[in-house]
Structure formats: structure tokens, C-alpha cells
Sequence to fold (182 residues):
Amino acid sequence: QSDVGNDLANILLTEEQLQKRLSEMAGQIDADYEGKDLLLVGVLKGAIMVMADLARHLHSQVQMDWMAVSSYGSGTKSSGVVRILKDLDTDLTGRNVLIVEDIIDSGLTLSWLAQNLRSRGPESVEIAAMLRKPEAAKVDVEVKYVGYDIPNEFVVGYGLDYAEKYRNLPFVGTLAPHVYGG
Ligand code: PRP
Ligand code: MN
Ligand code: MG
Fold:
């Protein structure tokens, strides 16, 4: 059994930093949606950790649903092609929707997804993302709640994968060069 610690070059955000920021974001979300129904839409698979932790920091009554979309495949660059692998079970008519994502990289996934969900007759659609890479943006995405802006490096952990690995790390880090097959 190999130790994943050997594959990491650097820890960018610790578990404590992630949880502290999530509890602040949850406080803002609680205040903004006071007296309203809220549907959290988690984007599989990357958003699993953010969704689970953000939801536990919230005091509001929320429902949770999931979509699976993929734009990356197994590589490290966005293909720009978004595919729906699993759609929502919930009718969005009149609902307040908050899309929950792990990361905004090029912005292609969320720009496409927000537009898709807005076409379904919801009351509102907003976005919460744990990480954002401003330098990687190819399209502008309006994000209401952002955890941390990070440099344009390939990061893993806390839901983020490289070839489906490292999602289970409780922190966010960069991979050592030898992992890319160097
Ligand atoms: C990753 C990440 C975001 C998206 C961000 O998902 O979880 O959903 O890419 O990239 P973008 O802003 O350039 O579109 P991925 O397609 O790798 O699927 P996964 O969540 O199942 O890992
Ligand atoms: Mn994803
Ligand atoms: Mg991925």
C-alpha cells in the first residue's frame, strides 16, 4: 500500500483552513436565504466533500440533489466538452438553487451548468465554489460564494482528482512532478 503523502509536492490549503472558510460561507448562505427554501445541487464527483461539509455547517433547512457532469476525463486539462452523466431528480420550477462545486478552473463547466439550470424555471440560481483559479478563466462565471482563489496549478484532494485518485484527501495540495509520469 503506497502512501499518498509521497505523491504530493505541497499542501496548499489545510483541513483547518478549508473548514474555517466553509463555516464563514455557510453563515453568509444562512443569512441570504433566511425564510426561503434552498436546494443545494452538488456537482459529482468533485463536489462531494464541499457538499457534505458545507451542508453540515448550514443551519438552514435545505434539500440536496446531485448532477454528474464531466469535462476533464482523465487528463489535467479541460476538454471544454461538458457531458451530463446524471441529471437531477428534482423539478427546479420556482426553486432557489445553489450549485455547489469544488473548483472553477476555466469556468466552462459552471458557465454551461448555470445556464442549463436557469432554463428550467427556477426562482434563482447561484453558485458556491470552494476554489477558483482566476488566471485560468476562459469564461466569466458569476460566483456568489467563493472559498479561496488559488494559483493556476493542478491541485488535488478534497474531492479533486488526478485520474480518479486523491479525492479522499481532507486537504488540497499540488502533485509531485513524478506522478505525472515524469
Ligand atoms: C472538474 C471540477 C469541476 C470542473 C472545473 O470536474 O470538479 O467540476 O472540472 O473545470 P472548468 O472550470 O475548467 O470547467 P471533472 O470534469 O474533472 O469531473 P469530476 O468532478 O468528476 O472530477
Ligand atoms: Mn467536477
Ligand atoms: Mg476531475
Notes: The radius of gyration is 16 Å. The chain has three helices and nine strands. Residues 15-151 form a domain with the Rossmann fold fold (CATH 3.40.50.2020). The chain has a mean pLDDT of 93.
